[in-house]
Amino acid sequence: MRFNNALFLAAICSVVAAAPEAASMPASMRARVESARSPELRWPDWSRYRTEVREFYRRTGGLAWVRDGAATPQARALAARMESAGLKGLDPLDYDGDRWNGRMAALATGPAQEAFDVAFTASLTRYASHLQIGRINPATLKQKVGAGAKRVPMTGLLVELASAPDPGARLDQIEPPYPGYRALLAQLPRYLELAGKPFTVFPAPRKVAPGRAYPGAGVLAERLTALGDLTAEEAKTLRPGWYDPALAEAVKSFQGRHGLQPDGLLGGKTLVQLNTPYTQRLEQIQLTLERWRWISLDPGKRLIWVNLPAFNLAALTPKEASYTWDLTCKVVVGEAFEHKTHVLTGEINTVVFRPFWNVPPSILKHDILPALRKNPKYLVRHDLEIVRWYEDPGPVVAQTPGAIRALAAGKLQLRQRPGPNNSLGLVKLLFPNNQDIYLHDTPARGRFANARRDDSHGCIRVEKPAELVAWVLQDDPAWTLEKVKAAMAADGPSVKVAVTAPVQVMIVYGTATVDGSGRVYFYNDVYGNDGLLKKALGACRLKDF
What we know:
By secondary structure, the protein is α+β, with helices and mostly antiparallel strands. The chain has 20 helices and 18 strands. The protein has helices spanning 2-18, 27-35, 50-60, 73-83, 100-104, 110-133, 154-163, 167-172, 179-195, 217-227, 232-236, 245-256, 268-274, 278-294, 361-374, 378-381, 401-408, 465-472, 481-489, 529-540; strands at residues 66-67, 70-71, 212-213, 242-243, 302-307, 312-319, 322-334, 344-353, 357-358, 384-387, 413-416, 427-430, 439-440, 454-456, 460-462, 495-508, 512-514, 520-522.
C-alpha cells in the first residue's frame, strides 16, 4: 500500500506541476486574492467570486490592469462602464464606479498597484455577473424562470476583457439577447433624465370630462408631453385651463399604457398613475431589467409568454434574433391575496378538449363543502360528481352522507363534468409544473372586460383559447382553427391531444414593458413582487453579493 500511495502522490504532483502556475505573482498579491477581501471597496467582501478571481490570476500571472505604473486602456474603459452602470439599470456604487478615476491616478507604488488590480478584478467580476445573470438568485424569491441560461464562463471573460481592443463591446454581448430586454434598456436614459427633474403632484378634483374647465390642464399637458402621450405640436393648440378633447385623447393613451380603461375621463385611478413619481417608474424599469437577466429561453422553440401584472399573453415564433408576434390576448390570473399565480416555466405537452375539472382540495374544503352543507343539491346544480380518484373511468360514487364524509377526509375526490359550464371551459393546455398551473378556457367571459384581472384560483384563463390551441397544434394539418372549435363544441368524452412540436411557456412578472413602437407600459404591482424584490436587493448588500 505504501508503494501504491507513493505512486498516487507522485501522479498528483505531476498533475499540479503540469498546470500553469502564476509563479511570477508576488506572495503579497496571492494573499490578497486568497483573502477575497478588499478593504478599500465600498462592499469589501467578494468571497463569492474568489474562484473566478483566483483562476484569472493563475492565467495572467500577475498584474492585469496596470502597465508601466498606469492603468491599461482596458481598465480605463471598463472603469467608465462601471461608473455608468446606471444606464444598465444597476447601481454604480455597487462597483465603486465613482472611485476608480481617483485610484488610477495613484498607482505609483507596487502595493498600491496590487491592491488596485485585485480590487478592480473583483468589482469587474461582480459587475459582469450582475449584468449577465442579475444581482440575486430568483430561487430565493421562490421564482423558477428557467433551467439556467448558457452563461459565458467568468474567468474566460475576464481574460478576454483584459486584452480586448473594445472591452465595453464585449460586455454588451453578455447581456440578455431578448428583444424585450433591449427595448426596455433603450428607454432607461429617458427615465433617468425624468427622475432627476422636479415632480409636480396634480390636484385631485372630481372626475373631469372632456370640454370642462380644469385648472391643472397646463401641468397635465406638460406631463403628457414629457411622457410621449402628447406631442409638442398638439400641446400648442390647447386652451389654457381647459380639459380639451385633444388633451383627453392624450389621457386615453396614458391610461392604455398604465393598465386602465382608456375612457379619457380624468378620475381618481388616472390621477394616481399621473401622480406616481418618475423615480418610481425608473425603479419599475430597473426591477424588470433584473428579472429579464434571470430568464432562460430556448431560442429555437416557440413561446407562450404570460406577464402577470399586465394580464396579457403573447404567442411568439422565433425569427432570426427576434420573435414574430403571432397572437396576443387578455388573461385572467390568480387572485392577489390568496391564489397568486406563480412565476415559472414549462413546456406544453398536452391539449385536452372538453376537460373534467378536478376540484383542488383547498377549493373543496373552503368553498364547496360549506356550500354543500347548506344546499344538498349543490353538486347536481354544478355538474359535480364524486369519484374514487380524478381519472377514474368507472361509475361515480353516489352522494350519501358517508360519501360526503369520505370526501371531506380526502378518501374520495370531486370533479366537474365536461361541458360549457365547466370551470375550465371547453379546452385546457397542460405544461408540467409543481404548482399545477395550466392555461384554459372559461365560461366567465365577462371577466376579460375588466382592466384588473386577478380573479382565478391560480390557473390562467385565456381570452382566445381556440386561437391559442390552433397555434400550438399548427404543425399538425388536421388541427385547423375550425377543427379546434368543433372539438371544443362536440358532445362526448374528453379528448387528449399530444403536442409534438415543443412550445415553451414562461409566466413572468414585469411591471414595465415596451411595445413594438417604443411605447412604455407600466402596471400595478398587484402581487407585491416589486416590493419583495426591492427589499431583497437591499438586503443582499449586507452580505457577499
